[in-house]
Amino acid sequence: MISPASLLRGESATQRAPFLERIKALLQSMGIDVIDYGTHERRPCDYPDMGLAVAEAVANGTVDRGVLFCGSGIGMSITANKVSGVRAALCHDELTAQMARRHNDSNVLCLPADLVGDALMQNIVRIWLSTEFEGGRHARRVEKIRAYETNHSPTKAATACAQDTDHAVDVHSHKSPG
Questions:
Q1: Catalytic residue list contains 70
Q2: Rounded CA gap, 100 and 143, in Å?
Q3: Residue tagged active-site, from 45, 91, 103, 167
């Protein structure tokens, strides 16, 4: 079983609070501990703040998986995927939720709170949590992503630059000036 899970409320707490509360209740009914990293204010917030907090919690092992909400799900997906070790998937139906887990071992689920209804959102979460990673050829592919991430991290690029003072490297784009 997945424990704990993490949730957050994106952009407008008052607008998306009902989704969050129903998803939290669903997770708790499945025996999953929930840590809410979301905003608890009644004003709009910046989704990257919470998206990065959840992604970091997944990457460092504080939680096993994360669930993120924002209007389209796109912003949260982009944000979470900036964190090394996170494989965030924007899912808008049951099939994308299943495939995100089966083939990509996704560890963060991003949901479009403004685009899917409550029942569908609950089904997406339920399927995403209950679907196992297939492994096999998919494990090889996920490992290639991990290897790239490890070999191209900004920290590694900065270290290489410091060791080779004759070769300048733009750490942000990983390209040599020219």
A1: yes
A2: 15
A3: 103
Examine the residue annotation and report whether 40 is marked as an active-site residue of this protein.
no
Note whether 64 and 122 are same-domain residues.
yes
Taking the C-alpha atoms of residue 63 and residue 109, their distance in angstroms, rounded to an integer, is 13
Task: Indicate the number of domains in the chain.
Answer: 2
In terms of domains, do 52 and 125 share one?
Answer: yes
Give the end of a domain, one of 95, 114, 130. Answer: 130
pLDDT of residue 42: 67
Higher pLDDT, 43 or 20: 20
- Whether 88 and 14 map to the same domain: the answer is yes
Contact 82, 49 (CB under 8 A): no
Name residue, tokens 């998206």: 51
What is the pLDDT, as a whole number, of residue 69? Answer: 84
- For the beta sheet containing 34-36, the strands, ordered from the edge strand earlier in sequence to the opposite edge, are 34-36, 5-7, 65-70, 108-112, 88-90
Residue 41: domain span: 5-130
Which of 102, 106, 74 shows the shortest CA–CA distance to 90? 74
Catalytic residue of the set 70, 91, 138, 161: 70
pLDDT in tens, 66-108: 999 888 999 999 999 999 999 999 999 999 999 999 999 999 9
What pLDDT was estimated at residue 21? 81
